[in-house]
Amino acid sequence: MGVDRYVTPIISPRKRSPSLQFLFDHDIRSPSSSNSPSGSINWRQHSVEEEMLSLISYCSFIFTFSDPVESPRQQDQKRFKLNQLLYLVKTSKKPLDCEVLVSLMSMISANLFRPLPPPSHLSFTSDLPDDEGFMATASPVWIHLQVVYDILLRLITTTEPKRLQDHVSHPFLLNLLVLFQSEDPRERESLKNVYHMIYRRFTFHRSIMRKSMNDVLLSYIFETERHCGIGELLEIYGSIINGFTVPLKEEHKLFLIRVLIPMHKPKGMLMYHRQLSYCVSQFVQKEPVLGGIVVRGILRYWPVTNSQKVVLLIGELEELVENIDPDQYRKLALPLSTHITRCLNSLNSQVAERALYVWNNEQFVKMILLALDEVFPVVVEGMEKNMKRHWSSSIRQLTENVKEMLEEMDPILYYKCILEMERRESTARKEGVRRKEKWERIESIAAKNHFL
């Protein structure tokens, strides 16, 4: 029936009954014949479009996977049809028809933009950096969503951005950002790929996409401290920062100061520190003069009781030192060495060990050498305290090794620092004795007056 519509009726000029040979020859010569290549292609294209519209219509029905009325057979059928649709989108050699594109984007939105289930855990923080149990909640809807994300990624990759401009709009992008709250890591990974591809291809959306991500990160830092997708968002930002040109724009520097540096504060930093550290290091590599701002910012948010955060931040500072502008070494030597010394005096052996290993870094030692007179009194006192009082024998042994290295730098200055430390300790002991005697006199006087 479909072929008959494309067959052109043939009428004899003499209105006589045409011969079979005449009809055959005319059919071969006729450019509008359904057997011609163009007619065949048009028919096939029309057939594919009709099939796609039929598949899209079926796939627009949403399964919750929680309603007992839903049929598992129908759920499997939808997945099958979604895969068929993905195949047709991938194998299509011509741009999709406008009607198909509109229906397809509508189907994608209907499947993706859904209310997320409430968080399965009360807190989105963890004591273990590799404990992602709260985020590893597998969504039963994923068997459908996986294919939908593949279709969307294929569309964004192969379709001209101008054709999708009306569909990939600001509300669409905001809805995608909301989905980063999903507890299923597979969905967040697919979202990351889709969102990043949109940023690459839709250049006219870049500014608003960065602003929207900034809003999510700021809300996490200063309001909720709860979000599953911070790591994925920072991965996207890492790639974006890598593409920034030098000199950096003021907008990008403000993002570093107002967003990335304060992101070292939340308790959940353990979950995304790797991505955060990469973003920060990218800024310092592009403009080493920003290193001083970053180091002071990290020291401002230094944790007091969270030893795991301390270990991570020591490692981040050690990497930053290698990219900082050497002109800032002297300014940063004292605050950095003061924090490192506090860490090596920590009763937590992991913190103390990590702080002592910093002295193996050549750039850190080079920084200390530029401000030896300021740094040595602090460092030497910390080393001597470890040697006398630390409970761990391995920490005392590591301290002994570092002490030998420091003595080789400037033996005379090291000896002066020890004498000064002993003088301060002696003064403190005398002051303690005088304070004790004073309190004893006060107690004695108070006891006498008590009986008056």
UniProtKB/TrEMBL annotation:
One of its GO terms (biological process) is signal transduction. GO terms for molecular function: protein phosphatase regulator activity. Gene3D superfamilies: Leucine-rich Repeat Variant. One of its GO terms (cellular component) is protein phosphatase type 2A complex. Pfam families: B56. InterPro entries: ARM-like, ARM-type_fold, PP2A_B56. It comes from the Eukaryota. Transmembrane segments: none annotated. This is Serine/threonine protein phosphatase 2A 57 kDa regulatory subunit B' beta isoform-like. It comes from Rhodamnia argentea. The gene is LOC115726109.
